[in-house]
Amino acid sequence: MMTHAMSMRASPDVDARFLLHAAALADTSAGLTAPHPNSACLIARGTTVVGDGFLAGQGTTAAEVQACLKAGDLAQGATAYLNLEPGDCHGDDSAVSALIQAGISRAVIGLRHPLQHFRNKAIKDLTNANIEVDILGENLTQGTSIKEACKACQTVNAPLLYRAAFKAPFSTLKYAMTLDGKIATSSGHAAWISSSLSRQQVFSTRARSDAVIVGGNTVRRDNPRLTTRKDGGHLPVRIVMSCGLNLPDEANLWDVSDTPTILMTQKGAREDFQERLQRKGVEIVEFDFLSPKTVADYCYKRGFLSILWECGGTLAAPAISSGVIHKVMAFVAPKIIGGARAPSPVGDMGMIEMTQALNLEDILFEQVGPDMLISGYLQPIPDLSYRSSEWIETVNIISEKSSSDLRSVLSFNQAWDAYGAFSNFSPHSINVASSNGKLVRWKTVEHYYQAQKFEGVQHTLAVELVEKIQASECPEEAERLGRSLQRKRPDLVRPDWDMAKMEVIYRALYSKFTGHPHLKSLLLSTAGSVLVDDSSRESRGFLGDLLMKLRTQLLLQESAGNANEFSLGDTCVL
């Protein structure tokens, strides 16, 4: 059992102050790479911070590892403050190991992990290592500052809490209106209601979202781009909802050179139009019945944590009525335009008395230039603390167990899913031989996959991009770099890529699962189940099939006692 030099216990106010600091630090990563839990770590001796760090994205160095490295020997006997219990991918215990090896004597955690397959695991491991663990809001409950810190830790990971509690992405409705409640003139003209400062805040909110949703009216009237107006950083997927596809042939959203667009419609709608957009690279998703609820359910399965609805009143009303909207952001401009037919931000919801009005909670008022931003929650952030969520936890465990016993399909998407380690974005490095036979280390499978698109191409842009991809900090950035150049300069993609990409990714998967024994065990444990990649990434159509082929190969090797190197010609017959 490891022993530690015990540090002096800080006061509750000091604990709360450091947790507030950790929550604020964690929030700085939102919008850099999404989606991922927002986590940070501070290491303090008394009232002095000696190390800190935050998780920049999936596949990057854990916040706890960064903080321990900065603290060095000063971490011995110190207190670690974590806004969120560690847990980002199956088998990745680097965060907990760093705290134990650094000699931390106490850990103060702001929030138990909302996802059941991570919940309480790190807390148990820390406790078993003789580290004192305090949970904010549970055994640290006294004082206003404690409540503020609890709220901050919940808010910074609200999307994850909504996902865990409601099986839905966290959805925010954003709109700008005049003082008399109009979002456009009677003619439909709406540029611009809010100030440039308000629009900058909207761009920042988009950058923190995984997808932005608009309806057909917005596309026809405004022809939006729905970008963040920034160079680099995270760009959300653009989603257009339209039942009849009465949409223009040319629109900014049909340009997918920088970020994808998904058009969601009902089956059979304007199939010729769908084909034209598909040729441009727009993804088409058809539903038997298109509604805000079906779209939200689909986004949940695709692994989106945060959705920003920038639609007009026609779509906003059913979205609110169906319960998919959790938060509202309303920019109110000091302008009056009048007009009996001028549209309002929310259409008719069938209410005839004020007693039926929906009330917001946790309301905030913020002046943004000449405008007033009013925000609040239609559905409060779920409280998943130990006591309040014990029944939820029990129900989830029972339902997950019963469904896992019966189901033959295992889906994965983000690295933090139960089987998220199968994702190309999981934080597992690989070593693959280059064309000259030298082993090269890649941070993730996605890094390797994106770089191989341009391998061997003798052009300055291609050579420089491969170097940038290899140096990129996280797989999200590697994906952006690779897909962007592929769309803008398809002539630089290696000519055999369509034929070679399956072999490329299979070779990477072989290295990943043979190089990390716990991943191999996880893959073999799925024998008999169908593996399905539910993500929106390039590999979605074939990654599950390749993993099942790899699983078969590894099972055959084990049964034959054969640990030979991967032979591409013998094993990757597709």
Automatic annotation (TrEMBL):
<keyword id="KW-0560">Oxidoreductase</keyword>
<dbReference type="InterPro" id="IPR002734">
    <property type="entry name" value="RibDG_C"/>
</dbReference>
<feature type="domain" description="CMP/dCMP-type deaminase">
    <location>
        <begin position="13"/>
        <end position="122"/>
    </location>
</feature>
<dbReference type="InterPro" id="IPR004794">
    <property type="entry name" value="Eubact_RibD"/>
</dbReference>
<dbReference type="GO" id="GO:0008835">
    <property type="term" value="F:diaminohydroxyphosphoribosylaminopyrimidine deaminase activity"/>
</dbReference>
<dbReference type="InterPro" id="IPR024072">
    <property type="entry name" value="DHFR-like_dom_sf"/>
</dbReference>
<comment type="pathway">
    <text>Cofactor biosynthesis; riboflavin biosynthesis; 5-amino-6-(D-ribitylamino)uracil from GTP: step 3/4.</text>
</comment>
<keyword id="KW-0511">Multifunctional enzyme</keyword>
<keyword id="KW-0521">NADP</keyword>
<dbReference type="GO" id="GO:0009231">
    <property type="term" value="P:riboflavin biosynthetic process"/>
</dbReference>
<dbReference type="InterPro" id="IPR037238">
    <property type="entry name" value="YbiA-like_sf"/>
</dbReference>
<dbReference type="InterPro" id="IPR011549">
    <property type="entry name" value="RibD_C"/>
</dbReference>
<protein>
    <recommendedName>
        <fullName>5-amino-6-(5-phosphoribosylamino)uracil reductase</fullName>
        <ecNumber>1.1.1.193</ecNumber>
    </recommendedName>
</protein>
<dbReference type="InterPro" id="IPR050765">
    <property type="entry name" value="Riboflavin_Biosynth_HTPR"/>
</dbReference>
<dbReference type="Pfam" id="PF01872">
    <property type="entry name" value="RibD_C"/>
</dbReference>
<dbReference type="GO" id="GO:0050661">
    <property type="term" value="F:NADP binding"/>
</dbReference>
<dbReference type="InterPro" id="IPR016193">
    <property type="entry name" value="Cytidine_deaminase-like"/>
</dbReference>
<dbReference type="Pfam" id="PF08719">
    <property type="entry name" value="NADAR"/>
</dbReference>
<dbReference type="GO" id="GO:0008703">
    <property type="term" value="F:5-amino-6-(5-phosphoribosylamino)uracil reductase activity"/>
</dbReference>
<dbReference type="InterPro" id="IPR012816">
    <property type="entry name" value="NADAR"/>
</dbReference>
<dbReference type="InterPro" id="IPR002125">
    <property type="entry name" value="CMP_dCMP_dom"/>
</dbReference>
